[in-house]
Amino acid sequence: MFKGGVKLVDFKSLSKNEKIEEFKYPEKVIIPLSQHTGSPAKPIVKKGDYVVEGQVIGEISGFISSYIHSSISGKVIDVLPWNLPTGKKSLSVIIENDGERKSIDKTERNWLGLTSEEIINIVRENGIVGLGGAAFPSHVKLTIPPGKKAEYIILNGCECEPFLTCDYRVLREYTDEVIEGLQIICKATNVKKAFIGIEHNKIDLIPILNNAIRNLKIYIEIEIKILPEKYPQGSEKHLIKSILNKEVPSGGLPIDIGCIVFNVQTARAIKRAVCNGIPLTERVITCTGLVRKPKNLNVRIGTLISEILNYCDGELKYGRKIINGGPMMGIQIYSPEIPVIKGTSGILLLPEEKLPEKIQPCIRCGKCIDSCPMFLAPSEIGRYVEVEMFDKCENLNVFDCIECGCCSYVCPAKRPLVDFIKYAKFKLRKK
Amino acid sequence: MNNKIYCSPHIHGSETTGKIMFYVIFSLIPALFGSIYFFGFYVVKVILISIISSVLSELLFQILMKKEIRIYDGSAIITGILLAFVLPPRIPLWIVAIGGFLAIFLVKELFGGLGFNIFNPALTARAILLASYPVEMTKFTKPLDYSIDAITSATPLFIMKEKINEQLPSLWQMFIGNRSGCIGETSVLLLLLGAIFLLLKRVITWHIPVSYILTVAIFSLFTNENPAYQITSGGLILGAFFMATDYVTSPITKKGKIIFGIGCGIITFLIRRWGGYPEGVCYSILFMNTLVPLINKYTLPKKFGSKNE
Lengths: 431, 309
What we know:
Structural class of chain A: alpha/beta
CATH superfamily of one domain in chain A: NADH-ubiquinone oxidoreductase 51kDa subunit
Largest sheet of chain A: 6 strands, mixed
Strand order of the largest sheet of chain A: 1-14-13-17-15-16
Oligomer: heterodimer
Number of strands of chain A: 17
Mean pLDDT of chain B: 94
CATH class of chain B: Mainly Alpha
CATH topology of one domain in chain A: Rossmann fold
Strand content of chain A: 15-25%
């Protein structure tokens, strides 16, 4: 168990029992070339080109980068900068659906015969990135740096953000694919022991998982860990702490202590790429909140959020906001004309909160410090940011902050602590 | 959809500054009624004058300085009640008014207002009043004597310290508050009721009160004082649960809070035992207030993942 964090009302019952629905192939998709952590992909199609489903439209541009594939078949109508859910802009390929659903040839493979390098290469070529939110290219994670050794793979099924249920549904409905993906990951990294971490509110998955493990041919040791419901249980570092009781060193990576963590949907995407030759062109998201019909949807990458909200009967009106991701770490988007990208785990329609107009003074209650899972002092950082003393923020380890939002959540004065911290990081990076 | 764009998180806890202040006011109400019972209707006037003076001083300052008017957050009301609680039952009302002004104008607002003052406003005001009006500030009256010129009676701490020939109240009387002393400090029972409420509502944590009271108890044991009397007399319970736990003037970490509590306990004991005054709660907390930035500096938690370094 990790120290700090907060207990949250999870609101998962809204969409927990909704089966994953196939969302229609949209009329057009907008596929950004920078959906992942690292350098943006290089466009290799131009206006007027014809592409099919699964065809590469963006080429990898470095080690930490990723391929981008078309999610539908049709004509490229433009390549231009478009807004990302993160607030930045990225060169994007706009494709008009021709309704043919033509696809690249899919090669079925048996992963048992593949070597580690072959698996990593397939993962790379199919544009697999972490589907938990940060969208870190998976082939990079699977490549163990020299001098390091992976001992454990941890499958992250915590889904600690309130509202979101897509990982839960995937674990429930595609259990075999997820576990197969986990085995492929273990094979690629030469690991013999894996954990599946899930929060207590998903305890009904235990028999389903056990059943799948019993029925599949299992080559590794898999242990299921039930973890208490506490936010941010699904944070990589805190998941490792809870399962192995080890702390990832500050500024380090999980591999430094011999672990690699994958999201359940990433494991499934890896399985589909390796065994079925399907590139990452779709993902399961949860659309919930104030929408009338909360749903878990399997969506083509590049589908506009407005179409999904429309389908789930979410009315956009004054006093409502759209969040890309979960309520704790998600990013509010200012227009629904923004596409779903690989890192989009959910679309939430939430009411605008009544927060103080002016920034209220810190009453020094210390609740933010008690809640910080990274053991920082958000109140102190906030005070220095207000007087623009950013060097002091660096001394207070502002760069260790994972922006989980616990401090802002508990603050009785409703101080925008995460805002302060992001600003401090921005200012310090610019220097 | 022409909304403002907010930074994450997009949900917040239900705790607000106003709510916390209300809880503190609410927690002081049992002791407030107790004080009326023990010292008569006059204390209502003292408490009211104290609150009015505090709130008006805050309003005055904020108007003069063209700052945001924040008298509605309730913090000045708490200061008013706490100041009244640490004054003698028959204190002249004009002194109370001066006290409220000092607490808010001098100690709180001049340092930057809510969240920025270094010293506990109510206690600092009391310290200044004690230095300025020593006669009025040390005239304690017999409990349950409701007349305006009630018979004076020495406080239990004074009796114990000076070994004067007066009957010490029984422990039961000490516990329920039937003894002479400041307005709100006498009833351990009613103060504890409020304190339990604050602990349950997680407004305060056990760290400061427990370390404070335990320190006083342990030192009393080693010097052959009766710990039960030491704990129930003077302003220890009021101070430990309601004054030393003031957010703004106490450390922000749990470790720091324990150090703060122990420090308060040691100084209280030293003053009671060897100091010039019979009571040391007020000065001990004020002294420890000065050390808070230092305690904070050295007790900030070590960041996650620093063990392996």
